[in-house]
Design goal:
The chain has about 425 residues and is an alpha+beta fold. The protein folds into 4 domains: about 160 residues, 2-Layer Sandwich (BirA Bifunctional Protein, domain 2), CATH 3.30.930.30; about 100 residues, no CATH class; about 55 residues, no CATH class; about 80 residues, Methane Monooxygenase Hydroxylase, Chain G, domain 1 (Up-down Bundle), CATH 1.20.58. Helices cover about 55% and strands about 10% of the residues.
Amino acid sequence: MAVTKIWNVRSHLKQLIDYVGDLEKSSENCSEETLQALVEYGVDILKTEERLYVSTLQCDLDSAVSLMEQLNSRSSSMSETIAYHAYQSFKRGEVAPEAAHEIGVRLAQELWGNFPVVVSTHTNTGTIHNHFAFPATGFDMKRYHDCKETYRKIREVSDRLCREYGLSVIEKPREKGRHIGEIKAEQEGRATVRGLIRRDMDEAIKHCFTYPQFATTFQALGYTLEWRGKYLRIRPDESTRWFRMDKLGEGYTYEDVQRRLKENGINRSFTPYKTYTKREKPKGLVALYYHYCYLLGALPKEKPNNREAYAVIREDVKRARMYSEEAKLLGKYDIHTAEQLSSFTKNLSGKFVALAKERAALRNRLRRMHDSVEMQPIKNEISELSRQMAVLRREMRLCEDIALRSGAIEAVVNTIDVPDKDTPKKTQDKKKEERKV
């Protein structure tokens, strides 16, 4: 299973060749700028990585830099890219260094036969991987065009060579990974914009079996649909940002929506759209908390049926979820007074600071380590501390919001007019007295 990647290089051509060809000569002189530009997998490997195999195609290592600079100088292109740095990494423990280097040389010969190429195989990280360096201009004075098509070809050739050597291949590679913020939000149970869009799309699809019906229903939920060239994009009414449908994930592209609507039509499995669904009433402390929020005007007093109101409702749902979490927090830790809340918040803050110091110490220790096997337990411990800090941070935010709202809730409740049960009787007595007079 080989993973491939390629970067364009706009400076420091000599240091790129030194890095790929002979790291012993460049590890002391490599600048931080080069480290960031050429090595994007996040660790300082230039000081620890050792050379295992180095091969050159249509050049030799000593004159590779001057040859590449000469080829670039003959090009009339105005592009700032002077070279490319490619990468091929194999599954840990699956391939021998000799076979990996042989695969790398064959890959370079097939893909970049018209360029001078430096190929190097490294094993320092425990995962055998190849590095490739070649100029942006070939011997025929044509520039290398780095795009989705050329990268797809790199992947295809790499997979074919891996199959020839009996190595595993990623059969269904992901085109693009999700943002780490969205992944963490889903793990913590927090709503994301894309998640809300997918949820509302699912709800609209359930009630429709033609695309015009879906577009009308979906836009009534507070969205705008618009074609931008060949792409269909979505914008929530309360947002200024657009989201392409083909970037929402599997099952939410324009073609997927058409297919799901067609299945509804074939199976007649759609249900008529209802603007209002009665829900089970909350009980206990949650109900009381919602009542206070209702009195404060934080929750809507009625559910409107126009698209502008749905954007407001989504925000109200977010606030209601937060209020629910705050109520659960108060019940979980048995907090009844402002003094208890303040003490609990200080305790959380102290724990958070202690965990932050412990994590910082582990990170400093990690910077001085070079063995990936010894580093992994430290990384796992750092991840666990980060998870605990995230929980504490969330609880501190809830406590701050409770402290801010508790005064307002108390003030509003105290100003609410409570009907006097004896009012009718007092009124009758007053009328009798007036009659006697």
